[in-house]
Design a protein that fits this description.
The protein has 585 residues and is of the alpha+beta class. The protein has helices at 32-44, 47-50, 160-170, 202-205, 210-218, 246-252, 302-319, 354-369, 374-385, 392-399, 403-412, 429-442, 460-476, 499-516, 549-565, 568-573, and strands at 8-18, 55-60, 63-73, 90-98, 117-125, 130-131, 134-135, 145-153, 186-195, 228-231, 239-244, 260-265, 283-289, 417-420, 423-426, 478-481, 488-492, 524-529, 535-538. Helix content is 31%, strand content 20%. It has an eleven-stranded antiparallel beta sheet with strand order 2-3-4-5-8-1-9-13-12-11-10.
C-alpha cells in the first residue's frame, strides 16, 4: 500500500460520445437515446404546469441523489433527413445533487447549488450540422450521435460514466445506450486537491515556495503562456497560482506531459469561517489545463491524468517541507468531501528539481557573463527591454549588428537565449532576473571577469544526503514548520506505540538531521503524539535522551533503599555465594 495521501477529486468536465462507435461488435444506437429524452417532454404533458419539472432519486456511492430533468433550445437547425421527425432541436439537462452532503439545501436539484453534484447536458449531432444555415464545427463520424457532457464537483471522476447510466435509467432511458463511449470521448477539466491547516501551508505560497519558483524557473521569457498570480489582500496566501505548460511539465517532474495550474486558495470571504470549519483553511489544488495542453486527454486516459495531477500535488508538498502521508497533522480531517487516507496506487516522489534548475541557470549566467561581447550585451539588453517578440532580423536592425553577428550571438549564448520559430527570447524568467540584476550592477563596468566557481552546483554527496533525509521524512510523515516560539519545528505525523518507540524515532531524527540538514540543532523542536494520545514536545534534542536530574536522584534513592533492605547474611545462609565468586559460565 502506498504511503502517500490520496487527493480529493474536485471539478471535472467530461465529454462523452454515444451512439456511434468504431468497434465491429458495438451496436450504434444513433439518436435513439435522444428521441427517448424528447418523449419525456411529451409524456410529462400538463404536469410541466401543475407539478413542475420531472424529478427522480438514484443511489450512487452509498448516497441518495436528487435529480431533475429539463430542456432548452439548442440553436441548431433540424436535420435534413427523413429519419428526423422533430420540428425543434433541443438540448436536455439532468441536474443531480447528493442529498447526504452537508451542503445540500433541500431544494429541487436544478435550484440547489449542487456543491456535491452537477449537470449532465445532452446535445444531438449529425453530419453537416448547421445553425441558422451556417456549418457547426463538431466531429463528423458520418452518422448521428449524441454528445453527453458531465460537469460535476466533489465526485470521483471515475464514477462519471456510472452516474450517467444511473440517471438515465431513473427516467426510463435504457442504460445500454451508454455502455460504450466512443474512444474520442475526452476530458476538458480535471482537478484534485488537499486541504491544509492554515498555519501549515505557508511554505507552499511563499515567494520561494514551489508555486512561485515553478513559474520563475521553467516558464520562458516570451514564448507560450505565462501566468503567475499572488493575491494576499484578504489573507496571506488568499489566491496564489502558477500555470505550467505541457512542454514544461516534464522539467518539473520527469515523464509528465499535461499543462496544469498549481493553486493555493481560500474561499471568497475566509473571515466568515471559524477554525473548526473546513473553509477556514486553504486548499492546494492542481488542475489540468486543456488550453495549455496540445494533446487531447481521452476518457480512457483518466487514470494516467489522475496519477500526474496527484503526483504534482504530492511533490509540491514534499518540496515545501510538508509530510505527504495521511499520518501528517498538516491535513484538515473535517473537510466534508475528503477522507484523509493513503492511496493504494503507486505515486512517484522525486527530488525537487527547482534548486538544481535555479543553480544551473545562475551558473550559465555566471559562466557566460565574463566572456560576453558588446554584441552579446546589445542583444541581451534588447531582450530585457523589448516588450514584443524579436526575430534575428529585427534584433540586427535594432542593435546595429549584422544578421550573421546575431546568429553568432544566439549560438554563443545558448542556454541563456532560446531561438525558436524565427524568434529570440530568454530561456526563463529566472535568466531574465539574473541578467537584469547584473547589467544594472555593472553599469559602465561591463567588461569584467567573474569566476564561475562561485556558482558550482551541489555535488553528488550532498544530493544523496538530501535523499536520505527525505526518505526519513516520508517514513515518519515529518513536516517542517517555521514558528515564532522556536527556530524550527519538526512535526511527526507517525504515532509511536509508546515512549520507547518515540525515543528510538527521535534518535533517528536527530542523527539524520545533523548529518543531512545542519549540525547545529539548538532551537529545533520536535512534536509527536503517541498512540494513546499523549503529546510530546522535545525542545532540546541534545538532551532528549539524557535522564533528568530529578530522574537520576529518584533512581539513586531507589537503589540506596534497595541496598539497605538487602540482608547479606541471609543471602549467604541460603547458600548463595558472594558476587566475586559467581560462576559466569
Amino acid at each position: 500500500m502506498s504511503r502517500h495521501v490520496k487527493a480529493a477529486p474536485h471539478e471535472g468536465d467530461v465529454r462523452f460520445t454515444f451512439g456511434v462507435h468504431p468497434g465491429a461488435n458495438v451496436t450504434d444506437h444513433g439518436l435513439a437515446p435522444y428521441y427517448a429524452m424528447d418523449n419525456l417532454i411529451k409524456e410529462w404533458g400538463d404536469r410541466w404546469e401543475t407539478e413542475g419539472k420531472p424529478t427522480e432519486e438514484i443511489q450512487l456511492l452509498g448516497e441518495t441523489w436528487a435529480t431533475c430533468f429539463d430542456y432548452s433550445k439548442s440553436g441548431l437547425d433540424p436535420w435534413d433527413n427523413p429519419d428526423f421527425q422533430l420540428e425543434q432541436v433541443r438540448e436536455f439537462q439532468f441536474y443531480f445533487v447528493s442529498k447526504d452532503s452537508p451542503t445540500y439545501e433541500g431544494k429541487r436539484a436544478d435550484r440547489d447549488k449542487r456543491v456535491k453534484g452537477g449537470t449532465i447536458t445532452v446535445r444531438p449531432r449529425w453530419p453537416d450540422l448547421r445553425s441558422d444555415g451556417k456549418p457547426v464545427s463538431v466531429p463528423d463520424y458520418g452518422a448521428p450521435y449524441i454528445d453527453v457532457q458531465v460537469q460535476a464537483s466533489n465526485i470521483p471522476h471515475e464514477e462519471y460514466l456510472t452516474l450517467v447510466k444511473r440517471v438515465m435509467s431513473a427516467y426510463g432511458i435504457a442504460s445500454r445506450y451508454f455502455d460504450h463511449p466512443h474512444p474520442d470521448s475526452h476530458i476538458d477539466d480535471l482537478a484534485y486537491y488537499v486541504r491544509l491547516y492554515r498555519d501549515e501551508s505557508g511554505s507552499l505560497h511563499a515567494p520561494d515556495g514551489p508555486i512561485a519558483r515553478a513559474h520563475t524557473l521553467i516558464q520562458g521569457d516570451r514564448s507560450g503562456y505565462r501566468k503567475h498570480v499572488e493575491d494576499h489582500t484578504k489573507i496571506p496566501g488568499y489566491y496564489v497560482t502558477a500555470t505550467v505548460e505541457d512542454e514544461k511539465a516534464g522539467e518539473l517532474i520527469r515523464g509528465h506531459e499535461l499543462g496544469k495550474e498549481l493553486k493555493h486558495y481560500y474561499p471568497n470571504e475566509p473571515q466568515q469561517y471559524e477554525p473548526d470549519q473546513a473553509p477556514y483553511h486553504p486548499k492546494f489544488e492542481v488542475a489540468y489545463q486543456t488550453s495549455r495542453t496540445e494533446q487531447t486527454v481521452r476518457w480512457d486516459d483518466l487514470d494516467d491524468a489522475h496519477r500526474e495531477l496527484e503526483e504534482t500535488i504530492l511533490n509540491a508538498l514534499e518540496w515545501a517541507g510538508l509530510a505527504v502521508t495521511a499520518d501528517s497533522h498538516a491535513f484538515v480531517e473535517f473537510d466534508p468531501f475528503w477522507d484523509v487516507e493513503n492511496t493504494h496506487e503507486a505515486r512517484k516522489i522525486v527530488q525537487c528539481p527547482l534548486p538544481k534548475i535555479e543553480s544551473e541557470q545562475e551558473h550559465r549566467v555566471m559562466q557566460l557573463w565574463g566572456d560576453m561581447t558588446e554584441a552579446d550585451r546589445d542583444v541581451t539588453e534588447l531582450l530585457l527591454t523589448d516588450g514584443g517578440k524579436v526575430s534575428p532580423k529585427e534584433a540586427a536592425e535594432q542593435t546595429g549588428n549584422t544578421y550573421r553577428t546575431i546568429r553568432e550571438v544566439t549560438s554563443r549564448m545558448e542556454g541563456l537565449i532560446r531561438h525558436t520559430y524565427g524568434e529570440l527570447e530568454l530561456e526563463s524568467k529566472k535568466i531574465q532576473q539574473e541578467l537584469l540584476k547584473r547589467i544594472r550592477a555593472a553599469g559602465d563596468r561591463f567588461e569584467q571577469e567573474i569566476g564561475s566557481a562561485a556558482m558550482d552546483l551541489a555535488d553528488a554527496a550532498e544530493e544523496r544526503a538530501r535523499d536520505a533525509w527525505s526518505r526519513l521524512r516520508r517514513e515518519y510523515a515529518i513536516s517542517t514548520v517555521d514558528r515564532n516560539d522556536c527556530r524550527k519545528l519538526l512535526k511527526v505525523g507517525y504515532q509511536p506505540a509508546d515512549r520507547d518507540e518515540a525515543q528510538s524515532i527521535l534518535r533517528e531524527i536527530k542523527t539524520a538531521y545533523q548529518q543531512h540538514v545542519e549540525q547545529f540543532i539548538a532551537g529545533v523542536h520536535v512534536v509527536m503524539t503517541l498512540a494513546d494520545g499523549e503529546r510530546l514536545r522535545i525542545r532540546d534534542m541534545n538532551r532528549a535522551f539524557q535522564k533528568s536530574v530529578e530522574g537520576q536522584q529518584r533512581e539513586a534513592r531507589h537503589n540506596k533503599k534497595a541496598r539497605e533492605m538487602f540482608d547479606f547474611e541471609e543471602w549467604k545462609a541460603a547458600g548463595c555465594p558472594p558476587a566475586d565468586e559467581w560462576d559466569t559460565g
